Amino acid sequence: MASTDHARTVFMAGLKNAHAMEKQALSIMQPQVNRLTHYPELSRRLEAHIAETETQIDRLDQVLTSVGESSSAMKDLFLSSFGSMAALGHITAGDEVLKNSFANLAFENYEIAAYASLISAARICGENAAVPLLEQSLEEERRMAEWVEQSIPGVTETFISLKGSGEKAKI
Hints:
By secondary structure, the chain is mainly alpha-helical. It has a single domain, classed as Ferritin (Up-down Bundle). The protein contains five helices and no strands. It has helices at about 5-35, 40-65, 75-90, 95-125, 130-165. It comes from Halovulum marinum. This is DUF892 family protein.
């Protein structure tokens, strides 16, 4: 099999994986937004990123259609379910908002790596029309990762302040 054939195989699998990854991201963020009470800036940014993520899914659908493929319903369902369970895992923690922030930063960096790989595979197999769409999603993920990283000190300060005043601080 030629190098471009291998790249195409990797690209197709990567597109389906990225689609499922973005479905998983929604299943992680949506429960967080629904539970946030003391962190309005975090809530607003997560809501904005949910909208970005929905657009990223649309872009991935567009790329999949352009190459004659479709998303994997099985992968989408599995990773979405896994994301929901992961989001539930922090609910019992006394510092839920902090644990969610750490997990969000890790997940954003995972998405960055996935899009960087997809862009490389697209170029190798000649699917250059997909590159601008993937680069747009990559840039959104980079901005979100940067925002999450920069917000952690403020979220931590608010958490400590609320905890010290006897308020419910975890969300």
